[in-house]
From TrEMBL:
Protein name: Asparagine--tRNA ligase
Organism: Listeria fleischmannii 1991
Subunit and partners: Homodimer.
EC number: 6.1.1.22
Keyword RNA-binding: no
Keyword vocabulary terms for this entry: Aminoacyl-tRNA synthetase, ATP-binding, Cytoplasm, Ligase, Nucleotide-binding, Protein biosynthesis
GO molecular function, one term: asparagine-tRNA ligase activity
Similarity comment text for this entry: Belongs to the class-II aminoacyl-tRNA synthetase family.
Pfam families with a match to the protein in the record: tRNA-synt_2 (PF00152), tRNA_anti-codon (PF01336)
Cellular component terms per the entry's GO annotation: cytoplasm
Gene that this sequence comes from: asnS
Subcellular location: Cytoplasm
Domain Aminoacyl-transfer RNA synthetases class-II family profile: from-to ranges: 130-430
Reactions this protein catalyses: tRNA(Asn) + L-asparagine + ATP = L-asparaginyl-tRNA(Asn) + AMP + diphosphate + H(+)
First-level EC class: ligase
């Protein structure tokens, strides 16, 4: 019977065959312990000299890291391992021998590992992070489907720049100029006017010269957009969504969280609602904490965000930022024209901003004046302006950065380990 490691619980006491790679190995004169992986999970195989042929025992003892093989044996319960099962090996059939695998169980430097990302993905820590990333994607679809959202796919090649013109990847589109999408938002607004509640999930690109633990050049974003929703309505969706993601990972990735050493007691507290603080109150809070360098009107840096987040146990919404540091599409607060109706969600423990969102301007004259004020090409945006021209309604939306969310929930220090093949400043390989 050919099965995978994640199915072994149904085969206790039975003989099965599994296609695996050798992750690691320990052996003595009488016994060999093979750490085997097959992509679905990791499991130990025990080869006892007295129970197998001389040839199989010699093969097991001499097997090199990342050699692929079919292993046949009997599944046993094993209360000493986190996985809970192991195999008593009876036969080994080598498929392909690996020699001098570059990533050994010893410590390696980050640059070395990044150069070998195509192989590094096989390690048990990277495996756990990728499983958690997958769970967050899966749970996102489940959440938005269950809340009645329609998935809409905005284009990647675009002629407009929702988040400002300085961080765009430029390319030729035959005879025209085009840019890689930095956000699908404007298209999602059009979709919300057609379908009500929509969400997208796709890659976005920022030609930012940032080299921090939170910045990727190419990252994946989930962007919901909702017709007839105010900022307050949107924040309620956001906290429910993020709490759902955390719970899904707790429920479905216990082994992975354990392997990463993530403190799950901290995650258990991430239930809705989340606290809210205005930008202006956040400035006061920072001054109280001794940050004399920041003035009202300036954007927060990572240390500021971390200091604000440290005042709360859960993610915190910072709302009503100054108009001058936010994009053209955000409307002023009717009660204070200096600030706009927006919110960023800041994750705990220094992981920074995981969501940016706002209400969107739906008044035609206001939108036209903003497009001018920001120096945007009215012709390139004329389709977007049409939305305000033909039966516009109040609407809100947000973008959740997948990699920062994975980093936070999995407890991974740097976003470069939360995406299979990170695109970073000065790194396009592998
Ligand atoms: O705050 P941002 O720039 O917002 C937008 O793009 C809006 N148009 C979204 C919307 O309202 N539909 O980006 C949203 C999120 C950030 O909060 C962050 O999590 C992530 O995207 N993000 C990045 N993640 C990794 N590397 C980068 N360079 C990122 N820039 C933004
Ligand atoms: Mg932002």
């Amino acid at each position: 019977m050919k099965i995978t490691i994640n199915q072994v619980k149904d085969y206790v006491g039975q003989e099965v065959t599994i296609g695996v790679w050798l992750a690691n190995k320990r052996s003595s004169g009488k016994i060999a312990f093979l750490q085997m992986r097959d992509g679905t999970a990791f499991m130990q195989g025990v080869v006892v000299k007295a129970e197998v042929s001389e040839e199989i025992f010699t093969l097991a003892k001499g097997m090199t890291q990342e050699t692929s093989f079919y292993v046949t044996g009997v599944i046993q319960e094993d209360s000493r391992s986190a996985f809970g099962y192991e195999m008593t090996v009876r036969n080994i059939e080598v498929i392909s021998e690996a020699h001098d695998y570059p990533i050994t169980p010893k410590e390696h430097g980050t640059e070395f590992l990044m150069d070998h990302r195509h192989l590094w993905l096989r390690s048990n820590k990277q495996h756990a992070i990728m499983k958690i990333r997958n769970e967050i994607i899966r749970a996102s679809y489940e959440f938005f489907n269950q809340e009645g959202f329609i998935k809409v796919d905005p284009p990647i090649l675009t002629g407009s720049a929702p988040e400002g013109t300085t961080e765009l990847f430029h390319t030729k589109y035959f005879d025209e100029d085009a840019y890689l999408s930095q956000s699908g938002q404007l298209y999602m607004e059009a979709a919300a006017m057609a379908l009500g509640k929509v969400f997208s999930f796709g890659p976005t690109f920022r030609a930012e010269k940032s080299k921090t633990r939170r910045h990727l050049i190419e990252f994946w974003m989930i962007e919901p957009e909702m017709a007839f929703y105010t900022l307050k309505d949107s924040l309620e969706v956001q906290e429910k969504y993020v709490a759902f993601l955390v719970k899904s990972v707790l429920d479905n990735c216990a082994i992975e969280l354990d392997r990463l050493g993530r403190d799950t007691a901290v995650l258990e507290k991430m239930t809705a609602p989340f606290p809210r603080i205005t930008y202006t109150d956040a400035i006061t809070l920072l001054k109280e904490k001794g940050f004399d360098d920041i003035e009202w009107g300036e954007d927060f840096g990572a240390p500021h965000e971390t200091a604000i987040a440290d005042s709360f146990e859960k993610p915190v919404f910072i709302t009503h930022y100054p108009k001058g540091i936010k994009p053209f599409y955000m409307p002023e607060d009717p009660e204070n024209s200096e600030v706009v109706l927006c919110a960023d969600l800041i994750a705990p423990e220094g992981y920074g901003e995981i969501i940016g969102g706002s209400e969107r301007i739906h008044d035609l004259d206001l939108l036209l004046s903003r497009v001018k004020e920001f120096g945007l090409d009215e012709e390139a945006y004329s389709w977007y302006i049409d939305l305000a021209r033909y039966g516009s309604v109040p609407h809100s939306g947000f973008g959740l950065g997948l990699e920062r969310t994975v980093a936070w929930i999995s407890g991974t220090e740097h976003v470069r380990e939360t995406i299979p093949f990170p695109r970073l400043l000065n790194r396009l390989y592998p």
